[in-house]
Amino acid sequence: MKRLGAEVLKCVSAVVLVCVSAAVAQGQPAPDLRAHRLLLDGGVVWSGSYAIGDSTAQLRGNAAGPSPPPFTLFSSSSEVGSVTSVVARVGFTLTPRLVLEGGAAFGTPRVPVAMSRDPEASPQQLAGEQLKQYLFDAAVVWHLPMRWGVRVRPFVIGGVGYLRQLHEERTLAETGQVYYGGLGVRHWRRGGSGVARAFGLRGDVRANVRLGGIDFDDKNRVFPTLSVHLFVSL
Q: Of 39, 88, 91, 190, whose CA is between 20 and 30 Å from 138?
């Protein structure tokens, strides 16, 4: 949990620094998208690692007594490692500030395994298998009514996704859902008047809750993501 908290704090700090450095005079008009237009996005998203369960291999002990303590052969802990995925998104601007969008992301995270408590060997880290991971999601993006200059505007985002994870041999698939919410900024390189075509950069940080998917303990998991995209309105 400490590691996860540090990753989330790092992502939030990065977004805050971008926002502060981009903010300009409050008296200038805030940029807007064009209403009733398609919005195309493409870029990369970094997903943080999260644990998926621990296990301990034990044998019945041979000590004296009716209930001898078990003998531990070894313990293992697994996680879905951090990964950078490619992402593509399509949105529709209901208003200059409100966007409905959907997207797809693909990545290949590893599932490393940490071995410990083996009386005959020192702790070691195994690379584990490599997954093929797909995420299809839908979201609502609302640009905040804040004046941060003629080119930068913050937004909040919330959505839900369908997760599909394929094991390395592609003989077994696990599915689940991802719910998320976050904060981001959009930086217009062109446009922003609400009447002209727009082109620019977008970044956001999110907190994600994963239900289902590959997990040895069948628990819900929380992990951060940080994304950077190019966007263009048609």
A: 190
Tell me the pLDDT tens digit for each residue of 78-109. Answer: 899 999 999 999 999 999 999 999 999 999 99
In total, how many domains does the chain have? 1
CA–CA distance, 42 with 68 (Å, rounded to integer): 60
Q: Encoding tokens for residue 196? A: 């002209």
Sequence letter at residue 130? Q
Instruction: Give DSSP secondary structure letters for 108-160.
Output: --B--EEEE--TTS--EEE---B-EEEEEEEEEEEE-S----SSEEEEEEEEE
Q: Please tell me the predicted confidence (pLDDT) of residue 98.
A: 97
CATH code for the domain of 190: 2.40.160.20
Is 62 a member of any domain? no
- The pLDDT tens digits for 32-72 are 899 999 999 999 999 999 998 776 655 565 666 666 666 55
Instruction: Find where tokens 């002990």 sit.
Output: 61
For residue 215, what are the domain limits? 2-50+86-109+128-233
Distance CA 153, CA 75 (A): 49
SS3 35: coil
Under a CB-based contact definition with an 8 Å cutoff, are residues 118 and 73 in contact? yes
CA distance 183 to 185: 7
pTM of the entire structure?
0.80
Q: Coil, strand, or helix at residue 119?
A: coil
Nearest to 52 by CA among 133, 135, 7, 114: 114
For residues 230 and 187, what is the distance between their CA atoms, to the nearest angstrom?
10
